[in-house]
Design a protein that fits this description.
Layout lengths: L5 H7 L4 E2 L52 E3 L3 E6 L2 E6 L7 E2 L10 E7 L2 E6 L4 E5 L9 E3 L20 E7 L6 E3 L5 E3 L5 E8 L4 E5 L10 E2 L2 H4 L5 E5 L2 E5 L5 E5 L2 H4 L8 E2 L12 H6 L6 E2 L6 E2 L6 E10 L7 E9 L2 E8 L6 E4 L27 E4 L5 E4 L9 E6 L5 E10 L15 E8 L2 H4 L7 H9 L6 E8 L3 E4 L4 E5 L2
Parallel strand pairs: 19-20
Antiparallel strand pairs: 1-9, 2-3, 3-4, 4-5, 6-7, 7-8, 8-9, 10-13, 11-12, 13-14, 14-15, 16-17, 17-18, 18-21, 22-23, 23-24, 24-25, 26-27, 26-33, 27-28, 28-29, 29-30, 30-31, 31-32, 32-33
Length: 505
């Protein structure tokens, strides 16, 4: 979330856990406050503090070419996790790795690291999160925090979900990205508090959970995988809220998505399902929020884009990183082979074709089959289907509802047998208390919007009278009708329709 970061300064009291100097006494405490989530100090070219770090003795590559969960980079620094420790070097320099001094509760326990923008996420042997701030500045400014979660990124911490197959850290920022582009083609300013997420590939690659440090300490928020959730990914990489996934066959998809882009943060942003194409872009975040003459954020959020097939051999070792201003400024990389040379396939996010960069390095990823198989039929459809009758004697049904997949068809059947299928958009709304993952006995609240198909809305006189009457009396002839949607494992409620559906499967 892009809430006001200044409040956090008051809550933290400027207490930081700075990178200790080599040889410093071990810090046995495991509560590190740090500066992450507070106003940025700006970036520079200084390397002050790097020269004091001990030269690394671990076996490390001359360059880090892929952002993975054990090796990563931003535009200034490269990081690697080895043997419980983190090593760092200048990204533009060949080699010259140094051992990054760590607080005592981290030293010797780190199993993964991921850098994006000016932040670095490390996880320990228990999957616990440690966030390093100022990663585009000099090492003397780096510091660690265990804070994570509500309120305002001051929570006691979080960790990777159980069964995480792959994970990545993502930061969308005003300093590096400036803007992001919605599906109407409008650019929107990135808020001052940035958007920082852990994206975790779970459930044997069938689900992606995202964990926002401003949100409750749980694993409830999700981003659906491609093909309506029936894509089984083997690897995930995200940078600046743009995710790249691959499956065993080598099918590749990308998606721009985070909590704010999803439509969930109505406190700070203005969203609309109405067509925003051609509307003027707001000059700043405040104007966008309060000026209805400017373009709102277009909903639904961007969906997955299938990327061109790799024109040769590839593995599932993938990477995405920022290359400039705007959400389209991303480079994709896929490890592979061309003409018996090892290296990687690369292209800008929106480019139509891949090029090959030979490296001569041994392949690390798992080879893909090369046969296009994006839909994995072994992933079952959601078991949550609901049906019920309204007071007006028409019935409604929702089949295979999945909290990560939107929209969902809402099918109405009137007394005379006439059918009407509406589109029910759902956004997993803003919460400040923990929510269990998935659909459970705990009510899950969504921001819902009912959409009438254009062909129905634009020809009311041609519709059967039950449909015509429903559109006029219940929806007020509107194309979009906002409504809460409350779901448990036994009930599906749509208050705007005064409707409570019972579980049918």
């Amino acid at each position: 979330m892009r809430a006001a970061r200044g409040i956090l300064l008051l809550l933290t009291g400027f207490v930081v856990a700075t990178v200790p100097s080599p040889g410093a006494a071990a810090d046995t405490g495991c509560t590190l406050v740090g500066t992450v989530g507070t106003p940025e100090i700006g970036v520079g070219n200084s390397t002050a503090g790097f020269e004091t770090m001990l030269r690394a003795e671990a076996d490390l590559p001359a360059q880090v070419l892929f952002r993975t969960s054990t090796e990563s980079f931003n535009r200034r620094w490269s990081f690697a996790a080895r043997h419980g420790h983190i090593f760092v070097k200048e990204a533009a320099v060949q080699g010259d790795w140094r051992a990054l001094p760590l607080p005592g509760c981290m030293a010797g326990r780190i199993r993964g690291v991921s850098a994006d923008d000016d932040e670095v996420m490390a996880v320990d042997l228990d999957g616990r999160f440690f966030t390093m701030d100022h990663a585009l500045s000099a090492p003397r400014d780096w510091n660690w925090s265990t804070r994570f979660g509500t309120p305002l990124w001051t929570g006691p911490g979080n960790a990777l979900p159980a069964g995480t197959l792959d994970w990545t850290w993502s930061v969308l920022s005003p300093n590096e990205d400036h803007v992001w582009r919605d599906t109407a083609g409008n650019d929107h300013p990135v808020g001052g508090a940035k958007v920082s997420h852990v994206f975790a590939l779970t459930d044997a690659g069938a689900r992606i959970r995202y964990i926002d440090p401003w949100l409750p300490i749980d694993h409830s928020y999700e981003m659906a995988t491609p093909e309506n959730g029936r894509f089984r990914a083997t690897a995930l990489s995200t940078s600046g809220s743009t995710s790249l996934v691959i499956n065993n066959a080598g099918d590749l998809y990308t998606r721009l998505f985070d909590f704010d882009i999803s439509g969930a943060d109505k406190v700070f942003f203005r969203y609309s399902y109405a067509d925003q194409r051609g509307r003027p872009e707001a000059p700043d975040m405040l104007a966008e929020r309060v000026d209805p003459a400017t373009a709102a954020i277009q909903l639904p959020a961007p969906t997955w884009t299938r990327q061109p097939a790799i024109p040769g051999e590839s593995t599932n070792r993938i990477s995405i990183h920022k290359t400039g201003i705007g959400s389209d400024a991303r480079e994709l990389r896929v490890e592979g082979v061309d003409a018996n040379r090892t290296g990687y396939w690369t292209k800008p996010l929106t480019a139509p074709a891949w090029t090959f960069v030979p490296t001569g390095q041994p392949l690390i990823g798992t080879p893909t089959s090369g046969s296009s198989e994006p839909v994995d039929t072994t992933i079952p459809l959601s078991p949550y289907s609901f049906s019920g009758q309204s007071a007006a004697d028409w019935t409604a049904s929702v089949a295979h509802f999945d909290p990560a997949n939107s929209p969902t068809p809402l099918r109405l059947t009137f007394a005379d047998g006439t059918h009407l299928t509406l589109t029910l958009h759902t956004v997993d709304g803003l919460r400040q208390t923990p929510q269990l993952p998935g659909i459970t006995t705990q009510p899950r609240h969504f921001d819902g919007t009912i959409e009438v198909p254009p062909d129905i809305l634009n020809s009311p006189a041609a519709q059967p009278s039950p449909i015509r009457n429903f559109l006029e009396s219940t929806l007020g002839s509107a194309k979009f009708t906002d409504t809460p949607v409350i779901v448990t494992e036994s009930e599906f409620r749509i208050p705007a329709l005064n409707l409570a559906l019972g579980r049918t499967s």
